[in-house]
Fold 3'-phosphate/5'-hydroxy nucleic acid ligase.
Amino acid sequence: MWLMLHSGSRNIGKELAERHIAIARRLPHNTDLPDRDLAVFLAGTPEMEAYRRDLWWAQEYARRNRAVMMAVLCDVVRRMLPQVTYGEPISCHHNYVAEESYGGVEVLVTRKGAIRAGAGDLGIIPGSMGTGSYIVRGRGNADAYCSASHGAGRRMSRSKAKKTFSTEDLAAQTAGVECRKDAGVVDEIPGRTRTSRRSWSGRRTLSRWSPISSRSSVSRVDGWV
């Protein structure tokens, strides 16, 4: 039996990112871009170093946040079931940046909707609310920057989902499942607005990286980022 939870930097990462994006847009080398969202920092500059410092801080905050939450959850279960024992926990980052090396080149890997799947790495691929989730083990595919899909892909925006489905639809789709069934999670209806990650036909070990609804991009540490 698995105890599973999800948490991140709880908006702090978003706030830090937006502040740094605003700084990048004002830098001279970004003034003539066709789209303001293409603004970048240059490696080795004070702005880039400040961004990376805050980035690592937010990711570490997210990791510790999950660790504390899991410790509390385990303690609750232990009080109810004193005989319970636990194995080694799996802490699985997603939507994050990592410093890694491929082909002898030091790079920054941005995994958006993706997790690390290095050889032997344990990871988590959750389904949509009320559907199955998977504990997986990576194969270390360097061609995919040792990445794998994470989570369920979204078929429509949150606002469109809430206009399309009702709480009655939610109750029907999650019948027999102990979960929230209020209007606040209508956009999470399984099989409708979010699709389960079953790219491996239910197998428990990753056989290949699937690019469906996930992105893994790479930038050189010594160049444009």
Notes: The two ends are 42 Å apart (CA to CA). The first helix runs from residue 12 to 25. The chain has a mean pLDDT of 82. Helices lie at 12-25, 46-80, 158-164, 167-173.
